[in-house]
Design brief:
Chains: A mainly alpha, B mainly alpha, C alpha/beta
Number of helices of chain C: 11
Structural class of chain B: mainly alpha
Radius of gyration of chain B: 24 Å
Distance between the termini of chain C: 51 Å
Strand content of chain B: under 5%
Largest sheet of chain C: 8 strands, mixed
Number of strands of chain C: 12
Distance between the termini of chain B: 14 Å
Bound molecules: adenosine-5'-triphosphate, iron/sulfur cluster, magnesium ion
Radius of gyration of chain C: 21 Å
Oligomer: heterotrimer
Number of helices of chain B: 12
Structural class of chain C: alpha/beta
Strand content of chain C: 15-25%
Helix content of chain C: 25-40%
Helix content of chain B: over 70%
Strand order of the largest sheet of chain C: 6-7-8-3-9-10-12-11
Largest sheet of chain B: none
Number of strands of chain B: 0
Chain lengths: ~300, ~300, ~350
């Protein structure tokens, strides 16, 4: 009888948490919209996403169309960003390339987030030896400096954009897993989780209906920050010739071919790099704002 | 303290074993027959079988791994597929170059980052602070390979102040070290600023002011030293991304360091070379982290109690 | 009774501008401190005691805080108007402070001896060695066992009581004219509390300084203070000799406070507490700030704010209409008004 009372109380508590979640969302929204930097970031990201979608409409030329008599023309009214060594219009290539560069970034973060969140939930929820094993594996993944783990993976899988996506994604796994593991452990301790268990919820329901929504905000913050790094790393690998291959208009690959013409046609390297920088800046601005809005602890 | 170091040393053994395992598995993940790959393209069936026998590739995987670890600890990283020379020789040639680059870069990261962070924190929300933080935000957003090209274009091509590429003298070090260091400097600056602001709000800073100390004493003697403690950890982590970054920057500036060696080896599918390079770079990072831990501990003796 | 005045505070107002509005944490505080005397400042938590004491040294975190009005006259010089340079010479030298939080008020990574010695070097221009020796002497004076050894230690190696002794030694380093002690003992356990209080009284006798003693423990006030200023909602409501105050409290709030003290003579069983709650510093009523909790409140109390006025007794000030001449001619609240 006594346990029944506490159970229903705790379920009310669960409901109350849902409501506070709504309130939190509202306060999050107001903090975000008040944060000018975050808004600038959101606008930048929005613009890029739009560019991805309507690239064919915007592009004045075919990105793959070689016309050697027009090669290496500096920016002009006709070719706003000039043409490359094969006479292709750089602006059009950049517009089309957005699909590759941004797409790889999102895909790799989704990949890393999926496995990272799963591992983190399992480690945090089950604890004990499961946690020990998963945590050790994560430690080892973090022991590789920077993009070297990605390089190692590419060396095994071979170059290519898909392999770059996987390699960069793997690198994100431990970062998501760590955050989720910590938050899961905290949420698991809350008493309403026990109460839900006593009324018959199984692990699956508890994890996905009750724990996951509660660890969402750190995941989102991390995701936004990771997108910036993932886009940078993927472009870097393509720059090294390990990702997208010519004639792909992926920005890192474009930058790489532009490097050979740094003396005669610097614009070939300048524009793709500028595009990457502005996008990454957008994600960083947005990520900073998100962190302030979602994590009041970190706010100054 | 001695006990602490000993304990940490023991703790990193599984990490090192894990790293070697991952590096070992690279070879296993490669599609195709490892013996054929190691024998090189166009090798005859006999040669391949000979390789399989010599390298023990016909034995169980666990045994192969143990042999690999054993060899690595004896300094045998295998031979390059390209020139059949020991991988270790090549690494020993390249590592000092990369370490030198990393040293100057981390110097820039720390000095520039701390200076910028302090300048910002002393007058928060001033024009000075906002501009420093905007620059720092740019610093973490620019791809290093692009920044490297821009600097090269500006200082080597246009102004002709500095050499374009190579690794022959001090002038060659400047651009790559700056390129590699600024990203970390931006992160250290942001961290230093927030840590300083945190410390400046502490009770003991109020005490220092209540004693009548001059503001710069309050900042440098009382606040900065405390604020630096969390920054140490960030610098340690930064060293990791910096090591990874050498791969890109060495390629941009045509420096024959370890990073470029790894990239070239991936391009030519020289797997033992890749394995050796990645393994050594990771070991360096593991030991730098250990060093940072010890340093952190030394500055922050209070952890003793907790 | 014409003792020399060391410190006089007039109409001090310290406000905080926050997103919720303006918090008038200190809103018109007046008191006088005489040479060699101990003035107790008492009041409930949040009434503005700490902010008052921090204002005296201009240590209010700004933003959000700011001294918006008033004078703080130390030997007739106004601290509010001092330049940074001048202010630094006062801080830790003529006017020093012991903080409410002994655990966090010492720098965690600097040896405690050095934290004392640096003050001495700063204000007395002593060479390093002499300053260190003096710091060790001070630690001995405040009763820290094996001071030589302790001086070299960092705060985490010391207990709370020892840290508070270090704070006291630090505050006394330059023999200040005025020592402000903000609840120096609340964070400590009872036996150590008594030792620290004893120590402070002792040192006061030796050095001849004046003390502002902030506390919400009336028992301690009775023990150590000559004068008392009772604070309520950012203002002083009663300011007078401690003995008189305990004998015949004038302000209804003081009366309430004293009733809530365990009284041995009357053998009270249940402690009385004052009902109701303190008004928010963001939104004080226009009238008397105590009106909602006051058993004597009349209509005028809600319409007009009482001032801190001297009564017929010299050196006795109270902020209450009950002690003005017009009080008796005013009708009680709720009394029927005859046409
Ligand atoms: N930084 C701040 N921002 C806004 N309001 C503040 C700030 N600091 C203090 N206050 C307000 O000032 C009021 C007085 O605080 P103060 O610390 O002086 O109380 P106190 O009398 O010392 O209480 P206690 O006995 O608990 O130490 C508080 O009610 C608080 O609302
Ligand atoms: S002024 Fe009126 S309300 Fe205020 S304390 Fe005096 S009697 Fe009470
Ligand atoms: Mg206080």
């Amino acid at each position: 009888m006594a346990s029944k009372v506490t159970t229903t109380q705790s379920i009310d508590l669960a409901r109350a948490r849902k409501n506070t979640r709504k309130e939190r969302w509202q306060s999050f929204w107001s903090v975000m919209t008040q944060n000018k930097a975050a808004m600038v970031g959101a606008v930048i990201i929005g613009a890029y996403l739009l560019m991805m979608l309507i690239a064919p409409i915007l592009a004045p030329f075919d990105p793959y169309d070689i016309s050697l008599e027009d090669k290496l023309t500096p920016p002009s009214m006709e070719h706003w960003m000039g043409t490359d060594d094969k006479g292709r219009d750089i602006l059009s290539r950049i517009l089309y390339g957005s699909r590759l560069s941004i797409g790889v970034g999102f895909a790799s973060v989704l990949f890393g987030a999926f496995f990272g969140i799963t591992l983190g939930l399992i480690a945090g929820y089950y604890g004990k030896w499961v946690d020990t094993i998963i945590s050790r594996v994560l430690d080892i993944m973090l022991a590789f400096p920077g993009i070297l783990l990605a390089l190692a993976i590419i060396s095994a899988l071979g170059p290519g954009l898909i392999n770059v996506t996987i390699a960069v994604g793997v690198f994100s796994i431990p970062l998501f897993a760590r955050i989720v593991r910590g938050s899961t452990m905290e949420v698991k301790k809350l008493e309403y989780i026990d109460a839900i268990r006593t009324i018959g919820a199984n692990d699956f329901i508890i994890i996905f209906r009750h724990i996951l929504p509660n660890v969402m905000s750190p995941i989102i913050v991390q995701g936004s920050m990771r997108l910036a790094t993932a886009i940078l790393s993927a472009a870097g690998l393509s720059f090294l010739g390990l990702g997208a291959q010519p004639p792909s208009p992926e920005w890192g690959a474009m930058l790489s071919s532009g490097r050979d013409f740094l003396f005669s046609a610097p614009y070939m390297a300048i524009f793709p790099g500028l595009m990457i920088s502005i996008l990454v800046l957008g994600f960083n601005l947005f990520g900073d704002g998100l962190r302030d809005a979602l994590d009041p602890k970190l706010k100054k | 303290m001695f006990l602490f170091i000993a304990k940490r040393l023991v703790q990193i053994i599984p990490v090192i074993l894990g790293v070697t395992l991952v590096v070992f598995l690279i070879m296993q993940m490669v599609p195709g027959d490892p013996a054929a790959i190691l024998a090189g393209e166009g090798a005859s069936q006999d040669t391949i079988e000979q390789y399989r026998e010599d390298l023990g590739l016909n034995r169980p995987i666990a045994e192969q791994y143990l042999t690999y670890v054993g060899n690595v600890f004896q300094g045998d990283f295998g031979n390059s597929l390209k020139n059949k020379q020991p991988v270790l020789d090549e690494i020993l040639l390249r590592l000092p170059i990369t370490m030198e680059l990393a040293f100057y870069s981390i110097l820039i990261t720390v000095v520039l980052g701390l200076a910028a962070g302090i300048i910002s924190a002393v007058k928060p929300y001033s024009i000075r602070d906002v501009s420093v933080m905007v620059v720092a935000l740019l610093g973490i957003s620019l791809p290093s390979f692009w920044l490297g090209l821009l600097l090269m274009y500006l200082f080597s091509v246009k102004l002709q102040w500095l050499p374009v590429a190579g690794w022959d003298g001090p002038a060659n070090i400047i651009l790559p070290a700056v390129t590699l260091g600024v990203g970390g400097a931006a992160i250290v600056a942001r961290m230093t600023r927030s840590s300083m602001l945190d410390v400046i709000g502490q009770d003991y800073i109020r005490t220092a002011r209540a004693k009548g100390l001059k503001e710069h004493f309050v900042i440098y003697k009382h606040a900065l030293r405390n604020a630096l403690i969390p920054v140490i950890t960030v610098v340690g982590l930064q060293f990791g991304s910096l090591l990874g970054g050498t791969v890109l920057v060495e390629s941009v500036f045509a420096i024959n360091g370890l990073g470029r060696m790894i990239v070239d080896a991936i391009r030519t599918r020289d797997l033992p070379m890749v394995q050796g390079g990645v393994l050594v770079a990771s070991l360096v990072f593991v030991f730098v982290n250990l060093l940072v831990d010890v340093l952190y501990r030394a500055v922050n003796k209070r952890i003793d109690l907790n | 009774m014409s003792k020399e005045v060391v410190l006089q505070v007039k109409n001090l107002k310290t406000h905080f501008t926050t997103s919720k509005g303006i918090a008038k944490a200190v809103d018109g505080v007046d008191f006088t401190l005489h040479k060699g005397e101990t003035l107790g400042i008492v009041g409930e938590s949040g009434c503005g005691k700490s902010i008052t004491s921090l204002s005296l040294l201009r240590l209010i975190p700004s933003p959000p805080g700011k001294i918006v009005a008033g004078e703080i006259l130390l030997n007739n010089k106004d601290i509010v108007k001092m330049k940074e340079e001048e202010l630094r010479k006062v801080r830790g030298n003529q006017l020093s402070m012991i903080f409410q939080e002994p655990m966090t008020s010492l720098n965690p990574i600097i040896p405690v001896g050095e934290q004392i010695a640096e003050t001495i070097r700063l204000h007395q221009r002593l060479p390093r060695k002499k300053a260190w020796q003096k710091a060790v002497d001070l630690l001995e004076l405040v009763g820290l066992p094996s001071p030589e050894k302790r001086a070299k230690q960092e705060p985490f190696q010391l207990s709370g009581g020892m840290r508070q002794r270090v704070m006291i030694a630090m505050a006394l380093a330059c023999t200040p004219e005025v020592l402000i002690a903000d609840e120096p003992t609340t964070a400590l356990d009872v036996t150590i509390q008594a030792q620290i209080l004893e120590l402070m009284k002792d040192l006061q006798r030796q050095i001849g300084m004046s003390i502002i003693f902030i506390t919400h423990d009336l028992g301690v006030v009775a023990e150590v203070c000559d004068q008392v200023a009772v604070m309520y909602a950012g203002q002083v409501v009663e300011h007078r000799n401690a003995k008189d105050l305990f004998k015949t409290p004038l302000h209804p709030y003081t009366q309430g406070l004293l009733k809530s003290l365990p009284n041995i003579h009357e053998n009270q069983e249940v402690l009385q507490t004052i009902e109701g709650s303190v008004p928010s510093p963001y939104d004080y009523p226009i009238g008397c700030r105590f009106a909602d909790r006051c058993p004597h409140a009349k209509e005028i109390c809600r319409e007009e704010a009482p001032e801190l006025l001297e009564t017929e007794n010299e050196n006795t000030k109270v902020r209450c209409f009950m002690h003005t001449e017009k009080w008796n001619s005013i009708r009680q609240e709720g009394e029927l008004v005859c046409p």
